[in-house]
Design goal:
about 270 residues, globular, alpha+beta, Muramoyl-pentapeptide Carboxypeptidase, domain 2, five-stranded mixed beta sheet
């Protein structure tokens, strides 16, 4: 077995030969200059150079994986996690569109608003949804931030339980994103043209009973070094939704292509 290593003096011993490595930026070795050492030794030398450059590159980027929260530098050592048991979102959150639409049309707005103007005329039956300490209303391009009162209360209850779980487990406080709320028929048509396969003319979003929560985007509120992975935050949010689903308060559909939980209030 031939030993290959890098010495501090910049020389590489390969078998009984010394190869000068003062220029560490070199990308190759002139084979003709070292043809006497044999092709196998030469190849091992190239391999050693390759490993050397890889090691140098990795050491140069050793801080690349660090996260930064404002002016606070954090590393993998500050990773914390919710200890809840994982489960299949696809299996648990599979309430059919027909079931959600039935309850939405029964308890929601009397009919889907045709456009934004008609939606504005229905605001006496709706409550505005605003960003608060537990969730952020995203920049809505195909919906408006209004829900019927019971749906707004349910969204707030989800946010409160979410915050409670984080606090009870000594975890940093995050906010989740509300990405879609009340849609008009006009909004639905725009979404269909854009290729959203989950947007239908019988959309539950048109009744003010339904909202979507992103499961891979979160906003860290507490300025601490500890942080959580998105998958673990998804588990926290999923656990809250599972609790409310089991209590008969909501229907939930896991929409993995849109990276969101599609939620319709049941009462």
């Amino acid at each position: 077995m031939i030993l290959i290593c890098i010495h501090g003096n910049g020389c590489l011993p390969v078998a009984n030969h010394m190869i000068n490595m003062t220029d560490l930026n070199a990308h190759y070795i002139n084979y003709r200059s070292y043809r006497g050492i044999g092709i196998r030794t030469y190849m091992l030398c190239l391999y050693s150079l390759f490993l050397t450059f890889c090691s140098y590159a990795l050491s140069s980027c050793s801080g690349c994986s660090n996260k930064n929260n404002g002016n606070i530098e954090i590393t993998e050592d500050h990773l914390v996690a919710y200890p809840g048991r994982t489960f299949s979102y696809k299996d648990k959150f599979n309430d059919l569109q027909s079931k959600q639409h039935e309850v939405a049309s029964r308890i929601g707005l009397p009919h889907p608003p045709k456009d934004r103007d008609e939606a504005a005329s229905m605001r006496k039956k709706l409550v505005e949804v605003k960003t608060n300490e537990n969730y952020i209303v995203d920049d809505l391009t195909h919906s408006v931030p209004y829900l019927i009162p019971s749906a707004k209360r349910e969204l707030d209850a989800i946010g409160t339980e979410w915050a409670d779980i984080l606090q009870r487990n000594g975890l940093p406080h995050y906010r989740f994103y509300v990405t879609s709320i009340l849609r008009t028929q006009e909004d639905v048509k725009y979404l269909q043209r854009s290729g959203n396969i989950n947007s239908t003319t019988q959309s539950c979003h048109c009744y003010g009973t339904t909202f979507d929560l992103a499961y891979m985007r979160y906003d860290k509120v507490t300025r601490t070094r500890d942080y959580m992975h998105e998958d673990n935050l998804k588990l926290v949010l999923g656990q809250v939704l599972l609790n409310h689903q089991r209590a008969g308060k909501i229907y939930v559909k896991y929409e993995w292509k849109q990276s969101c939980f599609h939620i319709t209030v049941r009462q």
